[in-house]
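pls ignore typos typing on phone
flavin mononucleotide + seq
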Amino acid sequence: MSSRLFSTFKIGHLELENRIVIAPMCQYSAVEGSMTDWHKMHLGSLALSGASLLIIEATGVVPEGRISHGCVGLYSDENEAAISRSLKFIRGISPIKVGIQLGHAGRKASACRPWDGQGAQSREQGGWQTVAPSAIALAPGWPSPDALDRAGMDAIRNAFVDSVRRAARIGLDLIEFHSTHGYLISEFLSPLANKRTDEYGGSLENRMRYPLEVFAAMRAAWPAQQPLGAKITGSDFADGGITPEEAVIYVRALKAAGCDYVTVSGGGTVLDAKVPLGPGYQVPFAEKVKRETGITTGAVGLISDPHQAEKILVDGKADFIALARAMLFNPRWGCHAAVALGTEVRYAPQYARAQPKVWPPGANLGSLK
Ligand SMILES: Cc1cc2nc3c(=O)[nH]c(=O)nc-3n(C[C@H](O)[C@H](O)[C@H](O)COP(=O)(O)O)c2cc1C
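k done
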């Protein structure tokens, strides 16, 4: 049986074996921004999932741009060497393509690791001063960020470029510009976090200006034949926030600046957002962005069932499916999806005997379908 999910496709010039992408997932397990053995285990396990592309977690372009002190960075030689080691490890076990999400956490930086508590870290716990477009705290109890001035904005833009150069040196296949979930770039885009009165605040054109400046600088530093995409906000799910219509305008501008794909996510800018959680809840935003911009589009958000993923693609609502939680829950998700959709996926030779088609006759595969 032919399956759309398991059909080949391209992001820019990058050829991919199927349309299953592993969404970036913070592991809060780095030391001074450098990946550890945990990342080898985590990424290595996901590399055997059957997905065609694995995107490394939100990676801070400066130490203060990390979400927590356990988040990965790409701002030092040590960080670069650690990612390089993990990549070498992955490439030794799987042909999966590997990208990285580069970002800055803005006013949501300096947070506790989830298992250490909720909210921001105090100074006594090692927290640091955050920055944002405007000096507005995320929510009561969160510290007020410093509003960025021109020099601060330039420094962060340059840091994005430095990280892009490091990613190119490491040999990563793709870069994703983190432009959602209420972190710095989406703080500039959202009227809920951006109250600036200069040319970077107010109209959508002004709010897009800094994100597009950073994107253009990254594009110029990343080889033209290698894909640079963005994870964007389809909706802030809050009154007065980013709307799907604004998302379309932003994506058109990104596309004109050389963006190869977008994954359409949302939320995270304010903590009282009303997110209509349910299967595929963000797919309508992906569909709209794809239809109105023609850019290669990924759908993400509570997509867990192979038939659900297949239908989103067959219905033309997205070009690929990005999965986070379902992949963590079942790091052989792609292998199971291939069985469910009656098709095949590549296995590591060491695991070839795991393929249900070579199990002995009479084996009970019912629960796998
Ligand atoms: C453990 C975990 C870590 C995450 N870290 C990131 C991240 O680093 N960058 C990002 O854009 N989204 C991150 N997300 C969000 C996911 O990439 C995804 O957009 C979201 O979970 C919805 O997809 P899902 O329903 O398949 O999990 C994370 C999600 C989880 C569960």
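The domain at 9-368 is CATH 3.20.20.70 (TIM Barrel). The longest helix spans residues 150-170. more later
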